[in-house]
Structure formats: C-alpha cells, structure tokens
Automatic annotation (TrEMBL):
This is Protein kinase domain-containing protein. Residues 7-22 have a biased composition (Polar residues). Residues 1-22 are annotated as: Disordered.
Length: 698
C-alpha cells in the first residue's frame, strides 16, 4: 500500500462535529483505513456464499433481483426519447483481451459509457440547463484515490485500477472522497463466464470485491456531512466485462456494524450475513460486437436504472418523473407509425405482431409457403431460388422469379427476373415487415436498404439524375401475399405475416468489388476504372446535393453484361446524405475521418472512403480495428506515413496522385474538382480491344 492513509480526507470531514460523533467518526476512519483487502473479506464469506449456492439449488434463485422487469419496462418507455451519446467504443475482447492497449481502451470506454449514461439521465430527468454536478473517474487501488482514466493510464497506473466511479464534483478534492461516490463499476474480464450456474451468479471473488467497495461507500456516507436522500443506505455496484454486465445492490444500516478495528473483516462479514441485503441482477449483454452500447437492451437498462437511483441519492427526486416521461410512449409510437407510413393505426393496434394462418381460397399462389422462411424473432422473410414473388405498386402487379440469393456482409438480397421478361436480371431487396415498430438492428439495416434507398432513388429520378454508374429504380411496392388479403379498404395491412412488406427492385446487377477481391479478380485496370466510375457517380449525385455515405466493397458492383466494357456502379444508397441531419453509415475501415469524428460528411468524405476501398481492395493490409479511436489512429498513421499513397502508387501513378489530392482535401470544406480527376483517370483506362482507348461515356 503506498501513499499512507488511504482515506484521510474521506472521513475527516466528520471530525469537526460534536465529540460524540467525533469519536464515532475516528473509529470509523480507523476501520476504513484497515478495510482494504477484498481477498480477506472474500475468504470470510465463503460459508455464506456456500449456503447461498445450496439455497439456489433448492429454490429458484439465490439472490433477489434489484429491479423488477415491470419497473425496467416503464423506465425503458421513459428513456425512449433520450439520447445517450457514447463516443468511445468498447474494444472487442476477441482481439487479445490480455493486451494493455485493449485494457486501457476498455477503461476509457467504461468511463465514457458511465459519463454518457449519467449525462443522458441528468438532462432527461433533472435539468437540461443546469450543468451536471457529477463526473467520472477511475479508482487507483494503490492509494484508493480517483483519477481520470486517461491520466491514470498515462502515468502507468493501468495495472492498479480497481474500479470506475461516478463522483460528486468537488473542486477541493480533485481525487475524490468516498462519501461522494455515487456508484462504482468493476471492470473484470469474463464477468459472464465467471458466473456460477444457470442462475448467473457472479463468482464469490467478484462479489467479495463488490461488497468491499459497497461497505466502504456505506461507511463513508454514514459519517458524511452531505445530505442524502432517505435511500442512501443502499449502494449499487456494477459488474462489467467488455460485453456483459449486471448490477449488485447492497443495502443495510451500517450503524448496526460492530466497529472492532482489530477485526474489520470479521465484523464486515458478520454484518453482511446479519444486517445486509444483497440483490444481484442477471448478467446481460451491454455492448454489441462493434463496441456500441445497446442502450435499449435489458443489460444496459439495468445499469442505467441503477445509475438513476444513485443520482436520486445525491440530487433528490427528478424534476420529471419516470411516469411523466413514460406517458409519452404512446404518442411516440404513434409518431413512429406515421413516419413509417403505416397510416391506419387500427391494424395491429397494440404494436404486437399477430400471426394468423390464412385459410381463405388462394388467389395468388406463386410464393410457396415452404420457399419462404420467416425468422420468428425478426420476422424477416427469406426467399429460395425459383420462388416467384409478386409486388404491387400504384399502377400494376409485377412478378419476379428469384434467381440467386446474395449477401452483402450484413443483409440478404436477391437477383430476380421479371416474369414477363425472364432474360432480364435485377436486384431485389425485401424490407422488414411494417409491424416491426421497434426495429431490431437487422430491421433497421433492412429499412435503410429498402425504404430509405427507395426514397433516395426516387429523388434521384425526380431530379433527373442519370448516369450509367448510378443504380436505377426499376420497381418498388408492397408484396402480394398468398391467400386472401383482408386489409381494410382505408389502407394498412391485414394479419398475414407478409402483408405490406416493402420491396425494392433496381438495375443493373453485377458482382461486388468484395467478391472480385476475394476471387482475385480486382487488378490494376479494375482499380482505375472503379475509381473513375465511382467518382463519376459521386459527381452526378453531388450535383444534386446527394452524398453516398456508405462506400465499401459490398456497395460497388462490376457490370459485365450489356456493355462492351465492364463498368462499375455505385450501389447501396440507403444511407445517402440529403440534408445536414442525415447521418452516414459508420464503418471502421471505410468511413471517412470526418464521419468518424463528427458523424457527418464533409465534401471530400465519399472520395476519402473511395480511396480506402481502393487501398484495401488493391491489397493494402486490413488492420484489426475495434474502436473509433483505433480507426482514427490508423488513418492518421497511414496518411502521415503516406502508406496509402505508396500502395496505390504500386498500382498506378494516377491513383497515387488522386490519394494525395484527397489527403489535401480531407476535413476541409473545399469541393472536389471532379472534372479534372475524371479526365485524368479516363486517360489511364485501358480498353482491351482499343489499346489505350478513351471511354467517353462518363
Ligand atoms: Zn394482406
């Protein structure tokens, strides 16, 4: 233990009071000073934990849960309109969980997560205008003081970090006081796999640590000058790893503890057994594979709810109650329906999806039941090769036979031929069922792929944008399902599971650059042509103020049929940016620096993504990127060392020059001079049968 007394300041605040409380306070200070080793406490709790495990074998669960599901649901409704802005992503544990860099990033991510949680809650429930009186810092076990994670890591304290805490701001005590700790989060590897049994109890060693910190907090509060709300005799400790987390609630009157300073661990263990109520939540997922917190999921909700209670202890009851905010749930649901153009709210009025077998005489039977699988959880339709699907738009009904099932890394889509023109090939995208009012992640992507892309392609058509390097909207409408459609005449959908599912059909079709690269078919000529054709598509779109926002190898296709020379088409316009509030897709490898930093595009962003796509497609080594910070770091290093220019220079000098040009524009508001670069690229395109020919079409 370094730094002498760990808690001189924490408890010292009580010593100026009356002599009685001064004596009590001194005793507790001494007690706290000695109460630092979770391993000793854990050893004293072994029999207690054993008895709990025995109990859990016979009864349903060993510990009560801190929150009832119904409370969490109401809280979830209340949080619907609340945005939690998380900046640092949790690193993926798959990539070397032992490395210091990953652990450091995890500490930064948990600090950021707690900060985002607290800020979102403070602004939604307490005050939008008053500054938040709390901050987040890491606990250094060496002296039990708090430091900003960044500084602690920079000072080599990473190995000694024990927890991350939310603290009341106090400029006089920059390293925190224990009575001002609202909540602590313990970041421990494998919280989930350490859980014992199906009950998902945390292991005793983790629980022992949580209890040690909890008692320290309770003891410090018991002799604090701060005024707490009535419920200050309970504390919440969060247990998290890089994906999962749960909440431990420790509740009890520490005045009932025997403060024998010679036996601090025995006294504490006895108090836990006799006077303390410990409740433990299930360990649930908090961060997704990309390291983003799933704010609406139960894992994050439990943690948020605990933080909410902690804020009440220090700031009093919120200005807006959970009930107030949750009351808006109904109207928000209504707004969302309108946004998604559902029109009639009487259909599936409660937002729940009802499956009803259609037994009516089949009118149109082209889509065979067994060729369509509806995934029970997502209700996403999957079609088999050979099945025929009918869609209905404002004018007519059109049939499409599925010829191939494709996958773009995220979602399934199809190559289909119109029934009336079997020789023709088109891309067909099936959207998510409109009854999915609270779209899952996959449904959200489907929405971008189908509904949003339909909107963008329609706007392009309305604005008269035409280029062979842009996709064309061939048809869009709603699926016609098997059986009789009982949709009300006023609009909306019937009970059939596919009723109203939106469909988008586009042309042309081709092989994606991703597939060409993996098949070794993306060479020098392809790279230059691809750069030219994509830039040409971007030039046309940007003339109408439209940016792409999601350039990656899955969103560029090479079209071989119907043209003398293969050419590339920039597809996947669902994430296109039309106005300032639109957000581009986030991709650690292909997003532009500005998009990663600001969540927006600057005028050179699409070109920057195009350069990354060419760099990786031409064999640039694909780095492991598991966080936005890592992605930004890679960009900075790659550009400053001119790695991208070097790699593209091996392919062609014009691509190298283009990369230099984009580098000079990145992050600036200056527009790209498309004409110059299209001309330069065109001069470098080799057409096989013309030698060094000129493609005049673009
Ligand atoms: Zn129907």
């Amino acid at each position: 233990m370094e730094g002498g007394s760990p808690d001189q300041e924490s408890i010292g605040s009580g010593t100026k009071r009356s002599s009685v409380s001064s004596g009590k306070s001194r005793n507790r200070k001494e007690f706290l000073y000695r109460f630092v080793d979770s391993e000793i406490l854990t050893a004293k709790l072994e029999d207690w934990f054993e008895s709990i495990l025995v109990k859990s074998a016979t009864e349903k669960s060993a510990f009560d849960v801190p929150f009832e599901l119904i409370e969490l649901q109401k809280f979830d409704y209340a949080l619907e309109g609340v945005s939690f802005q998380q900046l640092i992503r949790m690193p993926n544990a798959i990539y070397g969980s032992t490395s210091d860099a990953v652990e450091a990033t995890a500490y930064l991510a948990i600090e950021d997560f707690l900060h985002a949680s607290m800020k979102g809650l403070w602004e939604a429930f307490w005050s939008e205008d008053d500054p938040m009186p709390f901050s987040v810092a890491c606990l250094y076990n060496g002296n039990l003081k708090f430091y900003q994670a960044e500084k602690a890591i920079a000072n080599g304290k990473l190995g000694g970090l024990g927890a991350t805490g939310i603290l009341l701001n106090n400029p006089r005590h920059p390293h925190g006081k224990w009575d001002q700790v609202l909540e602590l989060a313990l970041l421990r590897p494998d919280i989930r796999s350490l859980s014992v049994g199906s009950d998902q109890l945390p292991s005793l060693s983790v629980l022992g640590e949580a209890l040690l910190y909890a008692i320290r907090m309770l003891l410090s509060r018991s002799s604090s000058r701060l005024s707490f709300s009535e419920c200050s005799n309970c504390v919440f400790i969060l247990l998290v790893d890089s994906q999962y987390g749960g909440v431990v609630k420790v509740e009890g009157d520490v005045n009932k503890m025997d403060f024998d300073v010679k036996n601090v661990y025995e006294c504490s263990a006895e108090w836990i057994k006799d006077h303390c109520r410990v409740s433990v939540s299930p360990i649930d997922r908090i961060w997704n594979k990309l390291g983003n917190a799933n704010w609406g999921d139960i894992g994050a909700l439990q943690v948020l709810f605990a933080t909410f209670h902690c804020i009440i202890q220090f700031a009093g009851m919120p200005k807006h109650s959970i009930e107030d905010l949750a009351a808006d749930h109904g109207s928000r649901l209504q707004t969302r329906r309108v946004e998604r153009q559902l029109g009639d709210t009487r259909v599936n009025g409660n937002g729940l999806f009802r499956f009803q077998h259609c037994s009516g005489s089949p009118e149109i039977v082209e889509v065979q039941d067994e060729s369509i699988k509806v995934k029970s959880e997502g209700l996403i339709m999957k079609l088999d090769v050979g099945s025929v699907l009918w869609l209905e738009d404002a004018e007519q009904r059109r049939g499409y036979q599925i010829a191939d099932v494709l996958h773009n890394g995220e979602l399934q889509y199809y190559i289909a031929s119109p029934v009336e023109d079997p020789g023709k090939s088109l891309f067909l995208f099936v959207g998510s069922h409109p009854s999915q009012l609270e779209p899952a992640w996959e449904d959200m992507n489907l929405w971008y792929q189908v509904q949003r892309q339909t909107k963008i392609l329609t706007i392009m058509r309305q604005k008269g944008l035409s280029s062979k390097y842009l996709p064309q909207l061939s048809a869009s409408g709603r699926i016609i399902h098997q059986g009789q459609c009982r949709k009300p005449s006023s609009g909306g959908n019937c009970d059939h599971p596919w009723c109203g599912t939106p469909i988008l059909v586009t042309s042309p079709v081709g092989e994606t650059v991703a597939d060409m690269v993996s098949a070794g078919r993306f060479g020098l000529d392809e790279a230059i042509r691809c750069c030219h054709d994509c830039l040409s598509a971007l030039a046309v779109a940007s003339s109408a103020g439209i940016r792409h926002g999601a350039i990656r190898p899955e969103n560029v296709i090479c079209v071989r049929s119907g043209a003398r020379h293969p050419y590339f088409v920039l597809i996947g316009w669902g994430h296109a940016i039309l106005e300032d509030r639109d957000r581009p897709a986030m991709n650690l490898h292909y997003s532009s620096t500005y998009a990663l930093q600001e969540g927006k595009l600057c005028s050179a962003s699409d070109a920057e993504s195009l350069v990354y796509m060419l760099y990786f497609s031409c064999g640039g080594p694909l780095p492991d990127m598991d966080s936005v910070e890592g992605a930004l770091q890679w960009r900075e290093t790659a550009w400053s060392r001119r790695l991208i220019q070097q790699k593209l220079g091996d392919v062609s000098t014009v691509l190298k020059a283009f990369a230099d040009y984009v580098d000079s524009l990145c992050g600036t508001p200056y527009p790209i001079d498309y004409d110059i670069w299209l001309r330069r690229l065109r001069r470098n395109i080799h057409d096989e049968d013309h030698g060094k020919g000129v493609d005049t079409s673009g």
